[in-house]
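Private note to self, pasted from the team thread so I don't lose it. Backbone tokens:
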């Protein structure tokens, strides 16, 4: 990765200023100050200094999205499309302007503004960066989403269908800068457990690929779960990871193997990832856990890890849609009034809708939305009076009086700027 000295200085200043008040800035500043003296003596030290500044910048950007690498969208060209499985395709992206590709923290995602029929707003969707940070391309891997099994009459997924049918090598896509609060913390080298199920493997694969590329020596366990060998993306790359990171242990499970799938060759265990499986493989609970997968996995595994004694701050997870945002069930909600000021509507909240976005939709109040998982920022709303609570950490930076309606629930009577 390359940064010239002036850019580096600017970035480092911005990174540190922007991250003021957030964790570890003091520690990072000390590292940078200490390394500044050493950097002048040898090229080796200079490189180390650059690496640490880049880590500081990446961390600061990741922790504070006001430091996003660019504002709004930027045009990218698709340089290649690779079929990972029958339903999963990887898209390699290079910036059309040819300018340097900013680093991201493994686990973060890109937000795409995809064209729809003329005159209509773009479809906004997030896709995790599925490769380690590199300076030559970004990569996302998109699974084609069919209509629900019990509603075959519904149209299939819009964005994933667009990717699979309309996006080819040479296509131009409008992309927001990498962001997201789910990332491998570059300032923390504690042992990690990475858990990815189905297409939820993408962000944790990026983390594992980063550990392998940097030949990281911390103890790391990667649990990857798929239905069977036909739905197993990155198969070869996954098997290669432990060759590079000496302490990275890979464990693949299949829930419904095909006749051709062989235990020991294609997968290590039968069934889903649950706490007993983790306890069988892990030497202790003393890890940082990073999880991404379908709703039922998150709903069962997060409470199980907490019950096993893993502190909540050591459990990080990503939600790909409303089904995998924990805490939107509305259970035990205190009834209250939600006023949509500009629409002149007041609706009684009883928790059944799950989120303010869903409640607004049911009440006929039109709000913008994209990911419905607290990641794209499309449903950002001003809170004019009262208090709301988010079911998960927003993936985008918000002002003090703003909320993301798709993951927000009222805490008492509230007035919204909608
Ligand atoms: C942070 C983040 C990272 C992500 N990373 C990835 C990734 O790496 N790879 C990946 O593949 N995905 C990822 N996703 C998910 C992705 O953003 C999309 O949500 C996914 O591709 C589905 O979008 P879609 O537009 O294709 O489907 P949508 O059009 O949103 O449809 C979703 C489902 O709803 C059904 N449907 C259509 N109409 C109706 C209706 N009227 N009523 C009820 N149901 C209906 C559709 O048939 C489909 O089954 C990520 C999401 C987030 C938030
Ligand atoms: S719809 Fe994407 S953050 Fe709410």
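Design output:
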């Amino acid at each position: 990765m390359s940064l010239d000295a002036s850019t580096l200085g600017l970035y480092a200043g911005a990174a540190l200023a922007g991250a003021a008040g957030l964790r570890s800035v003091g520690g990072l500043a000390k590292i940078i100050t200490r390394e500044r003296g050493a950097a002048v003596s040898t090229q080796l030290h200079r490189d180390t200094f650059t690496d640490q500044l880049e880590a500081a910048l990446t961390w600061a950007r990741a922790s504070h999205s006001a430091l996003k690498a660019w504002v709004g969208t930027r045009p990218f060209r698709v340089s290649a499309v690779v079929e990972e499985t029958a339903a999963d395709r990887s898209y390699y992206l290079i910036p059309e302007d040819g300018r340097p590709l900013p680093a991201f923290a493994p686990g973060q995602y890109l937000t795409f503004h995809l064209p729809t029929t003329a005159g209509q707003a773009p479809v906004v969707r997030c896709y995790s960066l599925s490769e380690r940070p590199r300076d030559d391309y970004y990569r996302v891997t998109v699974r084609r989403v069919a209509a629900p099994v019990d509603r075959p009459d519904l149209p299939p997924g819009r964005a994933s269908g667009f990717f699979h049918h309309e996006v080819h090598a040479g296509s131009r896509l409008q992309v927001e800068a990498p962001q997201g609060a789910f990332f491998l913390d570059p300032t923390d080298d504690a042992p990690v457990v990475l858990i990815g199920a189905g297409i939820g493997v993408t962000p944790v694969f990026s983390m594992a690929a980063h550990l392998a590329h940097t030949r990281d020596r911390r103890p790391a366990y990667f649990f990857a779960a798929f239905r069977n060998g036909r739905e197993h993306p990155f198969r070869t790359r996954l098997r290669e990871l432990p060759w590079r990171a000496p302490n990275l242990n890979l464990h693949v499970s299949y829930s419904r193997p095909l006749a051709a799938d062989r235990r020991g060759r294609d997968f290590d265990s039968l069934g889903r990832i649950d706490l007993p499986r983790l306890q069988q493989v892990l030497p202790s609970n003393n890890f940082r856990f990073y999880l991404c997968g379908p709703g039922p996995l998150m709903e069962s595994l997060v409470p199980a890890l907490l019950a096993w004694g893993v502190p909540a701050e050591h459990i990080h997870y990503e939600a790909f849609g409303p089904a995998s945002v924990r805490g939107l069930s509305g259970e035990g909600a205190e009834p209250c009034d939600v006023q949509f000021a500009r629409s002149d509507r007041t609706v009684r909240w009883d928790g059944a809708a799950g989120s303010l976005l869903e409640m607004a939709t049911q009440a006929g109040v039109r709000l913008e939305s994209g990911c419905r998982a607290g990641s794209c920022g499309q449903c950002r709303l001003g809170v004019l009076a009262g208090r709301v609570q988010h079911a998960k950490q927003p993936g985008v930076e918000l002002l003090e009086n703003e909320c993301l309606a798709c993951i927000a629930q009222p805490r008492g009577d509230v007035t919204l700027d909608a």
